[in-house]
Amino acid sequence: MNVLVADPYVSRTDRGGALIVRQEPVVYEQGEYAQGLTAQQLQRYEEQGFLVLDGVFDADEVQQLWQTLQQLESDPQLRKRPECVREPNSQILRSVFGVHYLAEAVAQMVRDPRVLDVAKQILGSEVYVHQSRINLKPALNGKEFYWHSDFETWHVEDGMPAMRAVSCSVLLTDNTACNGPLMLIPQSHRQFVSCQGETPEENYKTSLRQQEVGVPDELSLRLLTDQGGLQAVEAKAGSVVFFDCNTLHASAGNLSPWPRANVFVVYNSVENQLRQPKYGLAPRPEYVAARKHVQPLM
Ligand code: 6CS
Ligand code: FE
Question: Is 40 inside a domain boundary?
Answer without folding.
Answer: yes
